[in-house]
Amino acid sequence: DVSKGYLLYLEDISVSFDGFKAINNLNLYIKEGELRCIIGPNGAGKTTMMDIITGKTRPDSGSAWFGQKINLLEMSEPEIAQAGIGRKFQKPTVFEHQTVFANLELSMAGAKGVFTTLMARFSASQLDHIDHVLNQIGLKQQRNLLAGALSHGQKQWLEIGMLLMQNPKLLLVDEPVAGMTHQEMDRTGELLSSLAGEHTVILVEHDMDFVRSLANQVTVLHQGSVLAEGTMDQVQSDKKVVQVYLGE
Ligand code: ADP
Fold first, then answer.
1. Which pTM was predicted?
2. Relative to the CA of 41, which ligand 1 atom is closest?
């Protein structure tokens, strides 16, 4: 059991760009069902870390294991997605001219695409899955609306729903609440918390109030390594963390 019981196990990962160490002996251990928040000042290496997990960037050294025995460093980006790691980037990218329902249908694992939509032939279990995700993301009432007509927050939830259609084990979510109203932020917090357990979630977030509201484990990245880990209150009272944030 190379992953030592963790769902995601990154050990001693380093990567340099033109001699600059963007990730420097990074260690990250994520348990199944966790909702882990990753914070850190600009340039800390958060995006690069996500790129390594999804296979977009190859580290120079270290190891990265997913599940019991999947070596992420030997897999291509599509293979990693196939293995159950889904990523949501900051900006929502939904199909604006399709309905909410069609967006989910088109994202279904093994979807045959628009043809299936036109024929409106779904198996009962596929319909159940779409229904379940519509409930999770709170867009049941909007199922027949064009995605382009949704609010910014609703588009973000729809995109999370599109990832959920593929049954990911691990969801990587990048700053989902940027540009949201307070109400939308609360709803997003509920959504992410409800996903943890059934899924595992890694959230990169700048909004400290939002991270605190989730009341989960927080990892602070700085200069490509872990500076502190713990609850938001614990990491915020850590002298090293205070220094990094005041010095930004
Ligand atoms: P964060 O997401 O925490 O803001 P990044 O992972 O984007 O940090 O960047 C970490 C550091 O690596 C930054 O100094 C950034 O300029 C540098 N960096 C990231 N990607 C590249 C790249 N492709 N080429 C050169 N430098 C990069």
1. 0.93
2. 3
